[in-house]
Design a protein that fits this description.
With 165 residues, the protein is of the alpha/beta class. It has a single domain, classed as Aconitase, domain 4 (Alpha-Beta Barrel), CATH 3.20.19. The protein is built from eight helices and seven strands, in the order E-H-H-H-E-H-E-H-E-H-E-E-E-H-H. It has a four-stranded parallel beta sheet.
Length: 165
């Protein structure tokens, strides 16, 4: 697991360059371009279980789903930031990408520190220090566990059909 650290106002163009918006739509097409202008190493080195720490207003800018699709596909466990742009937050929920607002944990992190996150319990540990945030609601966790909103709705519909039979 690796920790990726970024500052304030990381916008959607930094997360996924706008020049690819209409040519990349699948995870396989999106992932190679993630953060290419901000952090050229990210797409090639990020992987399952990695965590992103960021400052204020993470995901600001235009509305597009590629950044959250790509971060989810690459296996990012959580993005922990001081705050998130509203549209990016909604897109992340739709994809089942865990976003956590915990400014104190972000401020406490120093290069090389170990970071652990428990979205259900509402805790982030940085170098052994525990920080709390409101645990994610069961509805958000269910969407995450289903792999995104679309899968969650499909699952609910299948369960309803099975119950009606």
């Amino acid at each position: 697991m690796k920790i990726w650290r970024y500052g304030d106002d990381v916008n959607t163009d930094m997360l996924f360059p706008g020049k690819y918006t209409y040519t990349a739509s699948t995870p396989e097409e999106i992932v190679p371009h993630l953060l290419e202008d901000l952090d050229p190493d990210f797409a090639g080195e990020a992987g399952e279980g990695d965590i992103i720490l960021a400052g204020d207003n993470f995901g600001c800018g235009s509305s597009r789903e590629q950044p959250t699709v790509g971060l989810k596909a690459i296996g990012i466990k959580a993005v922990i930031a001081k705050s998130f742009a509203r549209i990016f937050y909604r897109s992340a929920v739709n994809q089942g990408l865990v976003l956590i607002e915990c400014p104190d944990a972000v401020d406490a992190y120093r290069e090389g520190d170990e970071v652990q996150v428990d979205p259900e319990a509402g805790t982030v540990k940085v170098a052994g220090r525990e920080f709390t945030f409101p645990g994610l609601p069961p509805e958000i966790l269910a969407i995450r566990d289903a792999g995104g909103l679309l899968n969650h709705v499909r699952k609910e519909l299948e369960e309803r059909k099975a119950g009606d039979a």
